[in-house]
Amino acid sequence: MKEATEYYTRKMGISEDQDLSLEDCNQIEMLHEFYQEQINTPEIDDFIKAVKVEAAHQTEKWGAEEEAKKYHFDYALVLDKLKGKQAIAIWDRNAEKYKHHLITMAAVCHNVHRQIEKKGTALHRCFYAK
């Protein structure tokens, strides 16, 4: 919760050395709960929205620091696993699961793309180290 508090206080324009009022704390808690509900509720009908929500969910679940350590082969393994889950969804004729795995794969690709350009990440070093 400490990271979330720091994030929301910055968003609210509250400096680090400023004391938080009870109202500020309640607002931070409400924002955090709203955010958690948004990124932890799967979406399968609106593809673009779903990919953004899932990408945020993955970053929240695994942590930005952990994402920064992953190499291309780590992501390839994740995508292969998801392709296997898609195959099972096809076999089961489960369109919802199939769409969910498709969205999850796109979100992984979104996060990979973001990590390539982000300095200090393993993927950035992989492509831009001299």
Structure, described:
It is a single chain. The chain has 130 residues and is mainly alpha-helical. The protein folds into two domains: 1-39, no CATH class; 43-130. It is built from seven helices and no strands.
Biggest β-sheet, characterized? none
- What string gives the helices and strands in order? HHHHHHH
Tally of individual helices: 7
| N- to C-terminal distance | 38 Å
The fraction of residues assigned to DSSP E strands is under 5%
The structure class reads mainly alpha
Query: Mean of residue pLDDT?
Result: 82
Say how many strands there are.
Answer: 0
Provide a concise account of the structure shown:
The protein has 130 residues and is mostly helical. The protein is built from 7 helices and no strands.
Break the fold down into its secondary structure elements and pairings.
Blueprint: H1 2-11, H2 22-39, H3 47-62, H4 64-69, H5 72-91, H6 95-117, H7 122-128
Features of this protein?
single chain, 130 residues, mainly alpha, 2 domains, 77% helix, 0% strand, flat
